[in-house]
Amino acid sequence: MRVGIEVGGTFTDLVAFEDGQVLVTKVPSTPESPDIGAFSALGAAGISSDSVTDLVHGSTVATNAILERKGARVAFITTAGFRDILFLQRHDRRNIYDLRYRKPEPPVERRDCFEVEERISASGEIVRGLDEAAVRRNLIPVLAAGEYEAIAICLLSSYASPIHEQCLKQWIGAAFPSLRVACSHEITREFREFERASTTVLSAYVQPVIDGYLDRFEATLAKAGFRGHFSVMQSNGGRLPAAAMRRNSITALFSGPAAGVVGAIRQAARSGRENLITFDMGGTSTDVSLITGGRPSLAAETEVDGLPIRTPVLDIVSVGAGGGSLIWIDEGGMLRVGPRSAGADPGPACYGRGGTQPTVTDAHIVRGTIRADAFLGGAMPLDIDRAHASLAPVARSLATDTIGAATAAIRLAVANIVRAIQLVSTERGKDPRDYSLVPFGGAGPLLAAEIADEIGIPEIVVPPNPGVISALGLLSADFLKVVGSTCRADLDENAPAVIREHFARFRSSAESEFRDLGLHGELEYSLAADMRFAGQAFEIPVDIDPEALSRLSHSDLADWFADAHRRMYFHGGEPGRRVELVSLRSGVRRRLDSLPEFRERAAGLRQAETAEIRTASGPVIARLVSAAAVQPGGRVEGPALIEGYSSTTWVPPGWHALRDACANTIMRRTPL
User: Whole-model pTM?
Assistant: First the structure.
């Protein structure tokens, strides 16, 4: 049996495959102990751990450790003169009009930052050697007195030559054998000192937390007789065995959103759709990504709590507009939705668990697009009176009733999500009307048609069981590793040789690592070069076919860069302009076998025939349809609510939905 378990902020989702059968389960998350929620999902699904052969897991443990400042106590070691790099950061202001603006706080105190005398040049040459005697005399005693749980080492220009970091790690390891030591050249071997230092410190900060979490998880599995393979999802859209995550847990920060994108791509591909805008609206946030030709884009950097993290991640834009996002009135009397969330505890007011503040879920209950007795297939009844009561203060502030407040809040949530879609499409030279919208997450299909109407997207592809697509993505993910490395060079006749040399080293290392991890079989490789015009501050990725490296010429690189630059900035490729090769991003992938077909789980609802939906233009009587009852070729005319176990799809007037042979529901506008 193959099982994927994704722990979200509000719900924990499970998808399992065995002998062509699909099992889907959704249970409330336990934020204080996410592993409890994971094993609760196994119990709710009736799955015994000893029957599982392949278990893939994604969670927010690392992200929460940073956001809640619950990581390890870390000592930061850097080159003399750079002790304050984590506090100086970049000379920018996120909000130029905020008179109380403060830079993001790093997870270490200044008193825990130490310097060593050494220097390596940007070309990797030793300018000043590292003195072992001085390290043992000056550094080791203060580390012993600090009661640290982890050490982060980031020496200047160590991306070009790691020799000093390697020596320092060896000496510290000899003095403190049980102490975790993270070196920047092992975490992110790219230039830009602040970003590299921030990434290394955050990796050291969360590594003991991840190690402890994985220890508990694996111990519980072993106790239950688990003998299968255990993998963890990464932010880059692939997974790796849990053993690999113990070396660099920072790569798992956004495993849930990444898994959702992978699951949406795989399911939409069954219906022949490859140009997609994925839209994952869960309990705490909405994550949007643009997919062209069935391939998600990778971003070289992301951030958590304002702190940069230099590691390859799927290019996802997030906004605080989930089902649990709070609806509130700001100091100026304006309506707001998010980014604060009610989370899993207490959750929306309609859950009846003590929450009193209104959320987007409460707005849907009041509007009628979620029926109180149909949530989670009827397994979790909701309280409509509490939903109305929570929205009453907002309604008074807006001089309307609770239905008006709910409608206004949902329209604002739609506007926030539309803006996120514009960020990944129109602002990057892509027309969203050329793409299909793929909504998932518990709340995604409820707003998909309204979002498509705002942007002009002609088609919506709703996957089966949309509320658990992230868990499906865990099982759909290939084994994958992506590594970035700085190799600055002019784009001249020597550039192809530089690229070939770097990629050959990566390929040899990747083959060895995957073999050591027990990942046998055919490996596929990818390569992208980050390039820029001389004098520019940021780079553009240019894809390179690894199979064509032997034929690669500098004129090919120049043409590809010019095309990429024109697509993004509408100019570039002018003769005589100097171009630089800055970094390479190399990937290795071992593909998985295909999965069985994913089908809608029966919800077991007591099905009424109609429901009243309160829209901005007035009340509408909608037909109620069971998602599991719609057969291939079945057509549902709007207005209708298609109710499933994990999510509800709203088909408004003027739209229709058609179930295709791959269990996807295709929504389009009905011709007049």
Answer: 0.90
